[in-house]
Amino acid sequence: MGGTFNPIHYGHLVTAQEALSQFNLDKVIFIPTGDPPHKTDEEIASAEHRYLMTVIATASNSKFFVSRIEIDRKGKSYTIDTLRELRKIYTEDVSLYFITGADAILEILTWKDTAEILTLCKFIAATRPGYDLSRLESLKKKILDTEDKIFVMEVPALAISSTDIRARIKQQRPIDYLLPEGVCKFILKNGLYR
Ligand code: NAP
């Protein structure tokens, strides 16, 4: 599961749990993006802080794991490099699904080495309720593959968003119950997003 996780919240956790159940997965590996290739202007907490928040949020679930693969790799975090590394760890008989937000997947044709990415994994695109699916449908047509590569999964809890949480912190509005309590306390303790 890829994401900037800036910060991680219950929408991400419910997405992971739902993917485990709907796709009968063995585990979900959360991979916080180290240096997002497509973001320059947004306020992003340090990679180490985002990694630690992800560890705190997932600690109690025995099927959730967190990888430092993108945090520790130098340079921009390209998904292709991550998938190549994962493919060295997991043999061909293991199916890899890349879980992330639908809006991120819509941009996949602009990502580095898209054609190879599509040979290495399938995608689970998490959407918020009421999401307009037409752009994902046209993306699927553009990919022109006989095998299904992109699965859509609606997640009501994705009404929660990292952008909204950051705005709330700036405006000194409550963030309780939008993300795990341990993550809330970590944000306050470290003065993130003020
Ligand atoms: P983003 O553009 O910040 O997020 C797009 C939307 O998807 C937002 O609404 C976001 O909500 C949601 N989202 C993000 N991660 C999610 C997750 N794991 N589960 C459910 N919803 C999620 O996307 P991003 O986080 O920067 O990137 C997503 C993934 O795509 C990362 O792994 C990133 O490295 C990869 N990516 C790769 C390339 C490349 O290789 N060139 C380029 C772009 C992205 P929140 O804001 O609430 O999270």
Helices and strands in order:
Elements: E1 2-3, H1 10-22, E2 28-32, H2 47-58, E3 64-66, H3 69-72, H4 79-89, E4 97-101, H5 102-105, H6 114-120, E5 122-127, H7 134-143, E6 150-154, H8 162-170, H9 181-189
Parallel strand pairs: 1-2, 2-3, 4-5, 5-6
Helix pairs in contact: 2-9, 4-6
Bound molecules: NADP nicotinamide-adenine-dinucleotide phosphate.
The site of NADP nicotinamide-adenine-dinucleotide phosphate has 27 residues, from β1, α1, β4, α5 and α8.
Please explain how this structure is put together.
The chain is of the alpha/beta class. The protein has a single domain, classed as 3-Layer(aba) Sandwich (Rossmann fold), CATH 3.40.50.620. The protein is built from 9 helices and 6 strands, in the order E-H-E-H-E-H-H-E-H-H-E-H-E-H-H. The protein has helices at residues 10-22, 47-58, 69-72, 79-89, 102-105, 114-120, 134-143, 162-170, 181-189, and strands spanning 2-3, 28-32, 64-66, 97-101, 122-127, 150-154. The strands form 2 sheets. The protein has a 3-stranded parallel beta sheet with strand order 1-2-3. It has a 3-stranded parallel beta sheet with strand order 4-5-6. Helix 2 packs antiparallel against helix 9 (181-189). The two termini are 27 Å apart. The model has no long low-confidence stretch (mean pLDDT 93). NADP nicotinamide-adenine-dinucleotide phosphate (NAP) is lined by residues 1-4, 11-12, 15, 33, 36-38, 77-79, 99-101, 103-104, 107, 111-112, 126, 158, 161-163.
